[in-house]
Amino acid sequence: MSYRKNHSPVTITVTGAGGQIGYATLFRVAAGEMLGPDTPVRLRLLEIPQGVKAAEGAAMELDDCAFDLLESVDVFDDPHQAFEGANIGMLIGSRPRTAGMERGDLLEANGAIFSTQGQAINAHAADDIKVVVVGNPANTNALICASHAPDIPAERFTALTRLDHHRALAQLALATGARVSDIEGLAIWGNHSATQYPDVFNATIAGRPAIEVLGENGKNASWIESTFIPKVAQRGAEIIDVRGGSSVASAAHGAISHIKSWVSGTNGQTTSMAVVSDGSYGVEKGLICSFPVVCENGHYEIKHSYDISEFSRKFIERSVNELKSERDAVASLGLLGNAR
Ligand SMILES: NC(=O)c1ccc[n+]([C@@H]2O[C@H](COP(=O)([O-])OP(=O)(O)OC[C@H]3O[C@@H](n4cnc5c(N)ncnc54)[C@H](O)[C@@H]3O)[C@@H](O)[C@H]2O)c1
Ligand SMILES: O=C(O)C[C@H](O)C(=O)O
Q: Which residues of the sequence carry a binding annotation for NAD(+) (predicted)?
């Protein structure tokens, strides 16, 4: 459903609320930037015990802002309480990789978090719950979460690739001198990882094929392959390298934009969301994969009109194969609940 004309409060559960992205998200949500100026919000903040103080501090500052849209803010360390009545779940908190941790250890640690949260959402969230998973590995965490919430349609569990979409828009605008608002049809395919595929071949700039405009700016296919794709796909690592920590404000902006689009629509414009595959474009059904989507009336739809060249197919397959291997790894660890 769309909340735009609905003045009743919307309950939003934010996990990892004491962390950096949580801090960069909460105040904007309470100010109405996500659901609009007519929609009051109730915030339910979830942290692990060690993070509760930080979340309580954020809650105190939220009070001190005296936001007129903020009806309540509560802090929990129990997911079953935190997801009570949630209409929206922003699942930001996750277990970061620390020294000595293997990939399997990371998947396992996060698997435990996201299975518990999936169960809590299944048991306590509102019927119209919409979930975006931000915590990495975001796509597979969303898959685990959905698999533990058998009473909720799998379509309601999504993962964040909007940040990647924004990064791609910005790089294309920089390369062509275009305005971001003149670009349409750009899409991120696959996993929120270095294998993701930012696709310019279906994009237009001020109504003209982006490829043509790139060509006029001296940017050919080899620029796309050797500069544009790695720049976007490895931007997260570049930010970590330059900033000394992973992206925060841009990730919060991506998460807010993701929910805003899903709830209020994209006015026919394309965006990217990692959503459950319906088998479109040969992506195995059930994987949480980034696709081009449009949103309307509180729903998203995968766009089915994209031309996929051999070049694009190769990149999409590589990322989808990575999603399959993550899915197989968590399945073999017994972390997937009900098969759908
Ligand atoms: N998808 C994306 O585009 C994207 C972009 C940037 C970062 N990220 C990911 O977002 C996540 C959060 O990043 P951050 O910078 O806010 O990290 P952070 O370490 O500052 O904050 C994470 C918070 O989550 C909390 N947490 C851990 N386990 C939890 C659980 N089970 N329940 C509730 N809270 C829990 C921690 O206590 C911490 O306060 C990371 O996994 C990061 O890799 C994703
Ligand atoms: O946290 C990370 O590893 C990077 C993050 O997912 C990003 O894309 O900025």
A: 16-22, 110, 117, 134-136
Q: 162-326 maps to which CATH number?
A: 3.90.110.10
pLDDT at position 6 is 55
Phi/psi of residue 205, nearest 5 degrees: -125, 120
- Predicted complex ipTM exceeds 0.95: yes
**pTM passes above 0.90:** yes
Active site includes 192?
yes
- The model's pLDDT over 286-307, given as tens digits with 9 standing for 90+, comes to 999 999 999 999 999 999 999 9
- Between CA 323 and CA 245 the distance in angstroms is 25
Domain coordinates in residue numbering, the chain: 10-159, 162-326
Q: What is the pLDDT of residues 98-108, one digit of tens each?
A: 777 777 788 88
* Calpha distance 102→162 (Å, rounded): 27
Q: Which ligand is nearest to the CA of 272?
A: 1
Residues 110-127 pLDDT 10s:
999 999 999 999 999 999
Residue 5 Cα, ligand 2 centroid: separation in angstroms?
35
Q: Which of 148, 165, 192, 258 is catalytic?
A: 192
Cα(63)–Cα(57) distance, integer angstroms:
10
The CATH architecture of the domain made up of 10-159 is 3-Layer(aba) Sandwich (3.40)
Instruction: List ligand 1's pocket residues with C-beta within 6 A.
Output: 15-16, 18-22, 46-48, 50-51, 92-96, 113, 134-136, 138, 160, 163, 192, 246-248, 251, 254
Tell me: is residue 167 an annotated ligand-binding position: yes
